[in-house]
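User: Please fill in residues for this 421-position structure.
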């Protein structure tokens, strides 16, 4: 049984290739539907998956177990007019200290404040578009940092507000010939001179860019000496303890902040507690719709291609009717005739699917080639799951498209089939 099936598989594959060669235009037009269908479905799913993974990777730097207390929410809702947010007070340093000292479910708490759009100068060199980021000492407990050179602030430097700074990789590259050269130099930023003690490892760009490459970190106590940090949109970042659900920590923060700001029971919160999951869930919904729309178009194209393959198989059965009759007269079983045409249909669809997958691979390689020209970390990755999905879809369409023509061939009577010519 097995050797016969192997022979049928081999012969059907050869016949399918010969059909492609013999009727090039007809076969090409029929395979085009399968190719376009697989191209649409797998391209859209792979692109959406790559975009989603890249965006989520950008948000991972913020931490899935970290909550952010600030004036503004990440997402606006209809039940709270936007102009009401303007009346909210900014986070204060005293509130940060209270939250840091009194939360029971927090592993660590840090304060961040930002001055975007600044310029940094060293001798005759200048770099614009720098974000001056003031942070409390606990910042490295919230966000992982790797150093290309130098170190982080000491606890004494953070507590006393010493004029030290850590440069992002892009800032250091623009001002110095090497990261090592930057250490120990003094640069001018936001009208003040700071002493460089460290340079961050280059993180690269992503679609949601939270990298520190264009940032300069300074102790928050230092900037408080000459600027009110409430003018810098301060944010308190709170990381939950291990095995403590983020929701529990959120309830504790809400109660503590309401107590600090002396809000009455019926008063709404005048602060926001943001978490990354809220934004990623919204993005998931958008990508789900895009994937469904692309998949619908692709499935429609695949079915059109399936009808094309079915048409080829009906023509193939008609052209080989007399041969079928001879085979049956010589004792060929019904199942072998059915498998012969069914496998031929599967092979044709499989080839169409492979062409579609190959085109997707080439398209993504070209796109990735251009993306690699910058420090962009985003790449399109074609996972094995979607490759297997494309192959399964191709084979499934081959079975559906070839089943009826194969059954027609298998049910032919030997005498009538031989007389057909």
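Assistant: Residues filled in for all 421 positions:
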């Amino acid at each position: 049984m097995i050797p016969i099936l192997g022979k049928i598989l081999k012969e059907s594959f050869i016949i399918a290739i010969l059909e492609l060669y013999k009727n090039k235009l007809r076969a090409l037009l029929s395979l085009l539907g399968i190719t376009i269908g697989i191209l649409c479905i797998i391209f859209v799913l792979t692109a959406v998956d790559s975009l989603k993974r890249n965006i989520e990777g950008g948000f991972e730097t913020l931490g899935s177990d970290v909550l952010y207390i600030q004036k503004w929410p990440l997402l606006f809702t209809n039940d709270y007019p936007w102009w009401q947010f303007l009346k909210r007070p900014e986070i204060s340093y005293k509130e940060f200290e209270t939250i840091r000292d009194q939360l029971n479910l927090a592993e660590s708490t840090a304060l961040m404040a930002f001055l975007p759009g600044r310029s940094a100068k060293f001798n005759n060199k200048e770099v614009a578009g720098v974000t001056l980021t003031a942070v409390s000492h606990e910042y490295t407990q919230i966000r992982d940092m790797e150093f290309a050179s130098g170190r982080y602030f000491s606890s004494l430097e953070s507590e006393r507000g010493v004029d030290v700074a850590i440069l992002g990789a892009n800032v250091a590259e623009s001002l110095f010939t090497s990261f090592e050269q930057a250490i120990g130099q003094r640069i001018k930023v936001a009208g003040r001179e700071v002493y460089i003690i460290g340079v961050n490892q280059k993180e690269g760009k992503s679609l949601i860019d939270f990298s520190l490459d264009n940032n300069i970190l300074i102790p928050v106590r230092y900037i408080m000496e000459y600027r009110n940090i409430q003018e810098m949109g301060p944010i308190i970042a709170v990381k939950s303890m291990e095995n403590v659900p983020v929701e529990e920590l959120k309830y504790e923060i809400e109660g503590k902040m309401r107590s600090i700001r002396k809000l009455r029971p019926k008063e709404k919160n005048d602060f926001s507690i943001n978490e990354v999951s809220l934004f990623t869930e919204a993005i998931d919904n958008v990508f789900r719709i895009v994937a469904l729309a692309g998949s619908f178009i692709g499935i429609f194209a695949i079915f059109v291609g399936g009808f094309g393959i079915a048409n080829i198989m009906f023509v193939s059965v008609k052209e080989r009717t007399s041969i079928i009759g001879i085979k049956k007269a010589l004792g060929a079983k019904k199942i072998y005739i059915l498998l012969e045409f069914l496998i031929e249909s599967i092979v044709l669809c499989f080839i169409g699917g492979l062409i579609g997958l190959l085109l997707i691979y080439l398209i993504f390689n070209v796109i990735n080639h251009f993306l690699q020209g910058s420090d962009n970390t985003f790449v399109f990755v074609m996972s094995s799951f979607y490759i297997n999905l494309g192959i399964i879809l191709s084979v499934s369409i081959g079975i559906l498209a070839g089943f009826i023509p194969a059954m027609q061939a298998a049910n032919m009577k030997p005498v009538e089939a031989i007389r057909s010519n």
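For context: Residues 2-59+280-419 form one domain.
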